């Protein structure tokens, strides 16, 4: 019987020797290749490990939250300081326009307030920092973080037992949605779901009041807009994400027993406002002698908005929080039906954009250089007009500031904030 070796390598001894040498050479080169391969795999693995270490290390080192001092700040800020009916509120978007005003109003009456804001650069972050300073002076702590960071949210709910969430963090702006659609999905959809997930899991669950928008009425032509009107014709991605938010919050109310109130804001304006909005950018341009672009609808019809003053909206937000009713679930389990509400927070008296410009001219004592152009098809709607009877009935919402008065207050703030000599105007 031939041996295995002979079976493998039969024939003459000489040939066998040669083959044997060849076999050894082959084996040697195969094992060298094998060793090299092993070496390369080990090198790649250690590189990947190093990368992930650096990543987590970076996250750790650049993290702006966590630690004993940070936790103490959260706990202090969340503390209720009034004897009856106080609430502890997590305000998302607290360095934003509406968020900063609502936070101050809650703190003033003794409620606990913790803010969270990602300080993104959609508009001048220095204005957000200035609002934050104002809040800090009033003992309100703002966490620098994103609502998509679930770990951060879980941590916040771990250390402060929030009774309410005032959710105002969002990617705002109707026309910018065509430039940066992803940012609307990030904040208004993914961020909202991230927040709701943490809220539904927490124990006790907080009641949630959040900012929807008048833009959900889209191409609706029935006026004034009532909450029961159709909202299935959004004219912009912004509006579509707010409408999606209304459906998403409904799901969380239905499945998990979260108490939800959605507020449809109507073109909110006032001191500490948003520089991307027309009244604000018009003021800047008018003062700098630059032209402004005034959009017009078809057949030169003026566009109109139900401009709503910030103090009125703040009252609406607080009225909603006070009447929100409790969430019924805990730890992700529903225990019974919870309130699901939607309210218009408007002013009920629309004003055309040229009229708004005329008011600014009066307060600024400067004539605007107006360029009238046909409204581009980028998400705008021709007019908005709120029916507010539901909010009035539920929590006595009653706006008291007309546009003329509100813009006067805005201009006063603008001139002082940007250092204009008011005596010269
Ligand atoms: O009520 C709302 O739901 C929305 O109100 C505003 O949206 P918008 O009413 O479009 O407010 P502005 O951007 O300040 O525009 C006000 C009016 O000025 C007009 N406009 C705007 C910009 C411009 O350069 N020229 C101009 O004529 C617009 O067409 C609009 O009719 C906010 O920007 C949205 O975040 C908010 O959700």
UniProtKB/TrEMBL annotation:
<keyword id="KW-1133">Transmembrane helix</keyword>
<dbReference type="InterPro" id="IPR001509">
    <property type="entry name" value="Epimerase_deHydtase"/>
</dbReference>
<keyword id="KW-0520">NAD</keyword>
<keyword id="KW-0472">Membrane</keyword>
<feature type="domain" description="NAD-dependent epimerase/dehydratase">
    <location>
        <begin position="89"/>
        <end position="323"/>
    </location>
</feature>
<keyword id="KW-0812">Transmembrane</keyword>
<dbReference type="Pfam" id="PF01370">
    <property type="entry name" value="Epimerase"/>
</dbReference>
<dbReference type="InterPro" id="IPR036291">
    <property type="entry name" value="NAD(P)-bd_dom_sf"/>
</dbReference>
<protein>
    <submittedName>
        <fullName>UDP-glucuronate 4-epimerase 1</fullName>
    </submittedName>
</protein>
<comment type="similarity">
    <text>Belongs to the NAD(P)-dependent epimerase/dehydratase family.</text>
</comment>
<feature type="transmembrane region" description="Helical">
    <location>
        <begin position="26"/>
        <end position="48"/>
    </location>
</feature>
<keyword id="KW-0413">Isomerase</keyword>
């Amino acid at each position: 019987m031939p041996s295995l070796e002979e079976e493998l390598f039969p024939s003459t001894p000489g040939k066998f020797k040669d083959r044997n040498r060849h076999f050894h050479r082959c084996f040697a080169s195969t094992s060298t290749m094998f060793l090299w391969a092993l070496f390369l795999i080990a090198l790649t693995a250690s590189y990947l490990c190093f990368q992930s270490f650096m990543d987590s290390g970076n996250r750790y080192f650049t993290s702006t939250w966590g630690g004993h001092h940070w936790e103490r700040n959260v706990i202090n800020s969340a503390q209720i300081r009034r004897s009856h009916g106080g609430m502890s509120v997590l305000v998302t978007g607290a360095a934003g326009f509406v968020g900063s005003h609502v936070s101050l109003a809650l703190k003033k009456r003794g409620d606990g307030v913790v803010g969270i804001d990602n300080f993104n650069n959609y508009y001048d972050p220095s204005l957000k920092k200035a609002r934050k300073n104002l809040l800090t002076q009033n003992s309100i702590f703002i966490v620098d973080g994103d609502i998509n960071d679930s770990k951060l949210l879980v941590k916040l709910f771990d250390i402060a037992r929030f009774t309410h969430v005032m959710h105002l963090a969002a990617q705002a702006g109707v026309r910018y949605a065509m430039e940066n659609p992803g940012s609307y999905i990030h904040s208004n959809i993914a961020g909202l779901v991230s927040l709701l997930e943490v809220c539904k899991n927490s124990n006790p669950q907080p009641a949630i009041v959040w900012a929807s928008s008048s833009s959900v009425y889209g191409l609706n032509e029935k006026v004034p807009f009532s909450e029961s009107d159709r909202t299935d014709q959004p004219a912009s991605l912004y509006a579509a994400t707010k409408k999606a938010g209304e459906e998403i919050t409904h799901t969380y109310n239905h499945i998990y027993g979260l108490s939800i109130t959605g507020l449809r804001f109507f073109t909110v304006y006032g001191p500490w406002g948003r520089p991307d909005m027309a009244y604000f950018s018009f003021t800047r341009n008018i003062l700098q002698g630059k032209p402004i672009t005034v959009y017009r609808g078809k057949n030169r019809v003026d566009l109109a908005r139900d401009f709503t003053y910030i103090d009125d909206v703040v009252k609406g937000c607080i009225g909603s929080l006070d009447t929100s009713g409790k969430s019924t679930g805990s730890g992700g389990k529903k225990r019974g039906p919870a309130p699901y509400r939607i309210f218009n927070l408007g002013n009920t008296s629309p004003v055309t954009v040229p009229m708004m410009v005329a008011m600014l001219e009066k307060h600024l004592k400067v004539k605007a250089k107006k360029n009238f152009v046909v409204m581009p098809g980028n998400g705008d709607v021709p007019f908005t007009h709120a029916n507010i009877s539901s909010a009035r009935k539920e929590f006595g919402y009653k706006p008291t500031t007309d546009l003329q008065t509100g813009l006067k207050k805005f201009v006063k703030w603008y001139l002082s904030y940007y250092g204009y000599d008011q005596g010269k105007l």
